[in-house]
Design brief:
The protein is elongated and about 100 Å long. Helix content is about 30%, strand content about 30%. It has 14 helices and 22 strands. The longest helix has 22 residues, at about 275-295. The strands form six sheets. The chain has a six-stranded antiparallel barrel with strand order 17-18-19-20-21-22. Strands 7-8-3-9-10 form a five-stranded mixed beta sheet. A four-stranded antiparallel beta sheet has the order 11-14-12-13, with helices on both faces. It is an alpha+beta fold and about 550 residues long.
């Protein structure tokens, strides 16, 4: 991006920042619940009866004070931080509601999600504001003024009174929104905007502001005309930092609250859609457009997100992952079909969705495979991967797990189950055996089909010899007579995992046992006879064969 320095030392980077301020956010949350979301834009002949002045109360120290209030309460000259007892004494008819900062935060995050329709670079500013980096986006909405009017109109219909400021720096946009109303500041006019404004427009600490006013510096213009060195010595470097950021002399980053998707496609709808079938059809169309971008990059999608923007401001975000890089629109549509079917009861279409966006949140290299003479690709794992992805899309990420071998001798540690997408994949074909090399046959030890989650203790009254298999054993209050036995197979615990005074106490001797009815068991003796430990060996049943 090209930069050009102005005579004041500011840099023109072409950046455009939009600041949105919701001065009545806390009370609008209550009024939207009581009067409906469109209470501000309702025609006069459909207005509900006037509500009493509304104030939000919060505890500060040992007193209840006003933290927010609506326009009617402001018209009565009530102020923030005024005691609730004093406000009620002056106006007994006011309506008082306890503050809920967590609900206000969720509402602000919902508004930030809705602003994704204009730009993916949306950041939360305090408890009642948003920053939008609209650089390069305004022409998509007919220019800066047209986009600003569209935002204000849509928020009004959702029941919010919002003030906006658009400038080249976040500091100037913030000041324009809070002290000038709906103002578009041309790049390079930040100083003219800030000069007549009070010091609060520079976002400096209240104690610093009080100290500046005590020496006669009451406006940003007076501060800009004062010598910088004495200001820095007396009030610290943060004061000049805020001033330089607002004027564009120093950069100020706007950190988006959500990661920006590398690829996104969207469709604005003249008529909102409400049916799941219509959404699935749009997903197929968007995936077809997305395929060309993925092919150009040589990648496939590993994580996809579907964003459904509702007419009244609510946003539904649906994400799913794939076990392999994917860019086939038909397969992507199948996965979202399963996901939408699982979430059908939780997605409220309301009056319909007027914007649908499909984004690739994570991508990976897409390996092209050679087709045979019939045009088919021989990939044995593709069907299994698609089946697992569809099950996970409908039932959740933990619905399909895959066992993976772990470097451990103990049977309960030798295998771990991990999500299917995290399982290692073979990147090269298996190596063919050398015909000149003599084959070597290795018979792994036999393991039971069913392994218990934890070994279950059993009673062994007698054995043929101290180190031999049991003659019979009692398990779950039933006595089993042993007719055949194989073993022992000795397994010791890893020395790097367990530290024990008597290593033999952790040693296991496994036996494969068959009872008189032909049932087969896998049991073991923990500990050795005659060891240093005074604890006698114990017996456990670890699994059963077919």
């Amino acid at each position: 991006m090209k930069e050009r320095a102005t005579k004041e030392g500011a840099k023109e980077t072409g950046q455009r920042i939009l600041s949105l301020w919701f001065p009545y956010l806390a009370v609008e949350r209550i009024l939207r619940q009581r009067l409906g979301r469109s209470w501000r834009s309702r025609p006069s002949d459909h207005l509900t009866p006037s509500h009493p002045p509304l104030v939000i109360s919060h505890r500060q120290g040992n007193a209840q004070r006003i933290s927010a209030l609506d326009e009617r309460a402001e018209a009565l000259h009530l102020k923030r931080d005024l005691g609730i007892a004093d406000a009620r004494a002056m106006y007994p008819s006011i309506d008082i509601v306890e503050a809920d900062p967590e609900a206000d935060r969720r509402l602000l995050e919902g508004l930030a999600d809705w602003c994704d329709r204009y730009t993916p670079l949306v950041a939360i500013d305090g408890t009642d504001g948003l920053f939008l980096d609209v650089t390069g986006c305004t022409h998509l909405f007919g220019g800066e003024r047209a986009m600003l009017d569209d935002i204000l109109s849509r928020f009004l219909h959702q029941g919010f009174a919002v003030r906006a400021g658009l400038a080249a720096t976040p500091g100037a946009a913030w000041a324009a929104a809070r002290f000038c109303g709906d103002r578009i500041v041309v790049s390079g006019e930040e100083e003219a905007l800030l000069a007549p404004l009070p010091l609060a427009a520079l976002r400096i600490a209240p104690e610093t502001r009080t100290s500046l006013e005590s020496v006669g510096l009451r406006t940003a213009g007076a501060l800009m005309a004062a010598p910088r060195a004495p200001l820095a010595r007396r009030f610290g470097g943060s004061l000049l930092l805020r001033l330089d950021q607002a004027l564009g002399r120093l950069d100020e980053a706007v950190s988006p609250r959500l990661p920006v998707a590398p690829l996104s496609v969207e469709r604005h709808l003249a008529e909102p859609v409400t049916l799941t079938e219509e959404i699935e059809r749009l997903v197929g169309m968007l995936a077809t457009t997305l395929k060309a971008d993925l092919e150009r990059r040589g990648e496939g999608a590993r994580t996809l997100a579907l964003l459904l923007f509702r007419v009244d401001g609510a946003v539904s975000r649906i994400a799913l992952g794939t076990s392999r890089p994917m860019r086939d629109p038909r397969l992507i549509q199948k996965l979202f079909h399963e996901r939408l079917a699982a979430l059908e009861q939780h997605i409220d279409a309301g009056y319909g969705f007027d914007l649908v966006r499909l984004s690739v949140l994570a991508a990976a290299a897409f390996d092209m495979q050679q087709a045979d003479l019939t045009g088919e690709v021989n990939d044995d794992g593709a069907d299994i991967a698609l089946f697992a992805d569809r099950i996970r899309a409908r039932l959740g990420e933990g619905a399909v797990l895959q066992p993976v071998a772990v470097e451990s001798h103990l049977p309960e540690r030798a295998v771990a189950t991990i999500p299917f997408t995290e399982a290692p994949r073979r990147t090269t074909p298996p190596r063919k055996p050398d015909r000149l090399q003599a084959p070597m046959t290795i018979f792994p030890p036999e393991r039971p089909i069913r392994l218990f989650r934890a070994p279950e203790p059993i009673e062994v009254p007698a054995t043929e010899m101290p180190e031999g298999p049991p003659l019979n054993f009692r398990w779950r209050r039933a006595l089993y007579r042993v007719t055949r036995a194989e073993g022992p197979e000795r397994i010791a615990a890893e020395w790097w995992r367990e530290a024990s005074d008597d290593a033999a106490a952790s040693t296991r001797d496994y036996f494969r046992i068959e009872d008189a009815d032909g049932r087969r068991y896998w049991l073991y003796r923990q500990g050795l006879y005659g060891g240093a430990s005074q604890i006698p060996p114990r017996w456990f049943l670890h699994g059963v064969f077919a």
